[in-house]
Amino acid sequence: MSARWSRLKSWLRSTLGRRRLEQDMDEEVRFHIEARADDLVREGVVPNEAIRRARLEFGAVASHKDAMRTSLGLRWLDDLWCDLRYAARILRKSPGFTAIAVGSLALAIGANTTIFSIANEILYERLGVPHPEQLRLFTLTGDKNVAVHSSWGNWDRLPDGRTTFNSFTYPIYQQLKKDNRVLQDIFAFKDLGHANVTVDGDAQAVQLELVSGNFYEQMKVNPAIGRAILPADDSAPGAGAVAIISDGFWQRSFGRSPNVIGKVINVNTIPVTIIGVNPRGFTGAKSVQSSPEVFMPLSMISLLRADSLGGPYLSNTRLFWVQIMARTKPEVPIAQAQTALNLAVSAAVRATMTLKKDDTMPVLTLDDGSRGLNFAARQFAKPVYVLLALVGFVLLLACANIANLMLARASARQREMSVRLALGAGRSRILRQVLTESLMISFMGGAAGVFFYFMGRSTVPRLFINAWERPDLNLSFHWQVFSFTAAVTILTGILFGLIPAWSSSKAEVGTALKEAGKTATKHRKAWSGKAIVAFQVALSTMLVVGSALFIRTLINLNSIDPGFRADHLLLFDINPPSKQYPAPKDVALHARIEEALRSVPGVQSVTLTDNPLVASDTSTSGFNIQGAPKVERKRGDNSGSVSLADVGHDFLSVMGIPVIAGRAFAPQDVNSPQRVAVVNQTLVRQLFPHDNPIGRRFSLDDNPEKQEWIEIVGIVGDTRYSNLKDEAPALHFDLYNQLQEIGGATYTIRTQMPPEAITPSLRAAVQKIDRDLPLMDIRTQQQQIDATTQQERVFASLTAGFGLLALALACVGIYGIMAYTVSQRTNEIGIRLALGAERGQVRSMVLREATWLALFGVLAGLAAALGLAQLVKSMLYGLKAADPLSFAGAGSLLLAIAIIAAWIPAMRASRVEPMEALRHE
Amino acid sequence: MAKQVDLMQGTLDMLILKAVSLGKLHGYGVLLRIQQISGEQLVIQQGSLYPALYRLEHEGSIKSEWGESDNNRRAKYYTLTPAGRKQLIAETEKWNRMAGIIGAILSLTTNNWTEAEAEVQS
Asked: Which residues, at least 6 apart from A907, have a Cβ–Cβ distance to it below 8 Å?
């Protein structure tokens, strides 16, 4: 048994049985003294004298007992306890200071924790599978002649003009899987987006992900109940009409009933058996933040969707559509695997596709797949970093504020510290005491901050999603978040405590005791306090400039006239499965639904479009004017293409888009063989600069053999198209009834009724036609528009909050430092007044000092803001990064606040009575 | 009264261990025994005995229990633990070596310098 063990045991025993220990110590000492006294009496000393001498010989009982406690390792605990009690008493004595310090810190720490947890979730969180770091996502990069002519999936354009995407044809995937020796088994998945699922007669839209048969095995995930999708389920098209559902869907639609296994649901009208439920926290391969509700074998795509243009998806050699991933093999370096697989991709492309003359090979890279396709990080990385920086500033500001307050208090407590030093306290002891106080404040702030975080964590994710979507982003209190908060709390405590602690412990015993209250000249000691206040003002200026920029951006966006009437419009999507409604049945279905909705009570008018306005959707095509010389265009050259939307014949009147010339669509156009369109003013300006377009015809297809002529019947006013920021593009509206195929469409209904009141009857009308068709994404047109300005609104509201907090803190800081200087200079001011200074002069002296201080901070803050604003230039709209209004406004606001905050101390200074001030000590 | 010497730094622990090794003692008893053995030549600040006792107990060299004193009073008695006994043996040995070496150095004359050096190395 080691001495360490014995020490620990003894320490625990004495800590836990503290009262007992103290009694024992007393008794032991008493016994000693009495026994000694007895001996002395036996030697012939008088009893009273014996006791006195025994005590004397023993020495100072209290200090020996202290040494005994030190022997047991209790000393630091006692000191800590003592410091804590003392700190608590000090803080309780000045409730105003404590409230401001703890409150501001709590807001700052709460905001930091929340933003950090969002950042953590969006930027760093990995898929909920064992060893996510092994996952590699296959990514292709190609130049503009790359041999990928049709793709279904996301792609990004790189700065050098090349494009990068992560879709593959199914045959290429098969070949890679077969030839692969350098990675573990390759698996595939495809996010199908919305699918129509009917559970017990209730149609709803859910997210659907298709996965290859080896997906679960390679992801190393076992369903919470039931079984995984196996290779046999994916062996042939339609072989496995089975599904695994997400934990969330299980909860929402089945109440976590274990009887869900074996239940049959309809997915796009196909009966599918549920075989398992995913464990909570498993989100599939697409994204970390949210899970698709239903997972099905990849080969089911043949039943779920109508064949692609080039034939069935699984045998289509031209369409790049599946995403593939694999885990690394520990023994194969990643560079080696990448080289080998890149060759394999080229071989597979050559083996499965017929290449044209100019076609180039895509280049494979094995990207980090630990966060899935990682859309969120790509989309939100910049705003999240900007937010992190902003809350960081807020925290710094709160720290500066508390440091400043504590510094002022430290000077006020100079005398106390001198007394303690004079009584024999070591400097380290005083340093520790003051640090204990600041850490106590920071811990209270941290605890309250965590409380704010828990209150805010259900609302904050709402800022990042559309109003009509389910908040899937779950901010859980991860250990990373906890350690972040703990670290921030301790760091801030040390940060704002260190300077005051240092200055306290430096107190000179003699001078401070003598000097107290007697200095008649300007105090040089307030210098560090003033520097901190100037720093605070600079930080506040930066934050206020930031919020002004973002608020102005939002105001600019909100004042944009979209070109149509967005009020009282209800939108929802209907997505007929292409298998049940192959073209042209889908067009006929939409016509029936449109007609049925028109007679629903409360509906004023109905229309639909395949491309809702201001919803971040675009569709473009070529535009070939009949009789005009044909334009030769290369692939990837979009110069001649224009935007379009296929709409119902009432579209213009429902949306309130004005007809400038010609006519709108008429009901008789619907069945007319002559296709008609209306064009917007921008299109006329760009493509018919000199002649009247009405009566002219155009074709969407560049290929002369496939040209179908569409007649322009009217010119309509410009509207915003995919978002609010961009001016109207050249745009034409075509009549959907005259198309062969439309697929999913967004219905637009003008009604005076609130959305939730009319939705049930709309749903009933649609389900009378097809009970498996759900109404998806029910929202108002205004919500739809707001969704495109989501980020701007988040930024405007968050930065406005930060700005307000910053202003309040700056106010407190300036007031604090000025009040402190005035109280320190009471004597000086008294002398000035006695010597004949006007009260107004004294007041303006104080105000002038505060103004200089603020001016210095404001200028520094504006300079810093000017630099930082360049970084967020791309997030602003309708104003320059160096927006004069925002900068001038923020600067003058801060100055005004500074003067207001200094007003009370200035008044107090001017009211000093010379006699009192001079008599005072 | 004989001339008293102050206790050397670090030797109190050893004396306590030795005193307790002869049988269980309360704190005052330890004091008496040390004074008795030393022939009243050592001065021990009475109160400083206890921090040392507590430290030794904290480290596991001695253990304590409450018992009855000769005059039927409650007193805390200390006894040596096996670890303490080992420590005492080790310390005693160290002390003797140290004393030997230092004695040799202090009684050094020029001609047996090398001899003393050899002894230090052993």
From this structure: A843
Mind telling me how many Å the CA of A15 is from chain B's nearest CA? 12
State how far Cα A793 lies from the chain centre: 13
- Three-state DSSP at A866 gives helix
Q: Which positions ≥6 away from A333 have C-beta within 8 Å?
A: none
Q: Does residue B46 sit at the A interface (CB-CB below 8 Å)?
A: yes
Closest-CA distance of chain B to residue A46, Å: 20
Residue A262 has which token pair?
Answer: 């074996």
Q: Which residues of A touch B44 (CB under 8 A)?
A: none
Structure tokens at A752: 């005076």
**What tokens were used for B2?**
């004989």
Q: Buried b / exposed e across A46-58, counting CB within 10 Å, b at 16+? A: eeeebbebbbebb
Q: CB-based contact (8 Å) between B28 and chain A?
A: yes
Write down the pLDDT at residue A98. 86
Chain A CB within 8 Å of residue B72 CB: no
Amino acid type, A655? M
Q: What count of other Cβ atoms lies within 10 Å of the Cβ of residue A720? A: 21
Q: Do B75 and A31 touch (CB under 8 A)?
A: yes
* Cα of B108 to nearest chain A Cα, Å: 39
> What ipTM was reported for this prediction?
0.82
Rounded CA-CA distance A86/A80 in Å is 10
With an 8 Å Cβ cutoff, is B105 touching chain A? no
Q: For residue A488, is pLDDT > 80?
A: yes
Element (H, E) at A888: helix A884-910
Burial A868-892 (b: 16+ CB within 10 A, else e): bbeebeebbbebebebeebbeebbe
Report d(CA A615, CA A595) in Å as an integer: 25
The strand pairing partners of A573, in sequence order, are A746, A776
- Sort out which chain A residues have CB atoms less than 8 A from B78's CB and list them: none
Q: What is the pLDDT of residues A737-749, one digit of tens each?
A: 998 888 889 999 9
Nearest CA in chain A to B57: A10
Q: What pTM was computed for the model?
A: 0.75
C-alpha to C-alpha distance for A536 and A559, rounded to whole angstroms: 34
Residue pairs between chains A and B whose CB atoms are closer than 8 Å: 82
Under an 8 A CB cutoff, do B26 and A10 touch? no
Over the stretch A323-380, which tens digit does the pLDDT of each residue have?
999 999 999 999 999 999 999 999 999 998 888 888 889 999 999 989 888 877 777 8
Would you state the pLDDT for residue B111? 59
Query: Residues 6 or more apart from B93 whose CB is under 8 A from it?
Result: none
The DSSP element (H or E) to which A646 belongs, if any, is strand A642-647
B58 and A6 within 8 Å at the Cβ level: the answer is yes
Question: Does residue A237 contact residue A303 with C-beta atoms inside 8 Å?
Answer: yes
Distance from CA of B109 to the nearest CA of A (A): 43
Contact A31 B46 (CB under 8 A): no
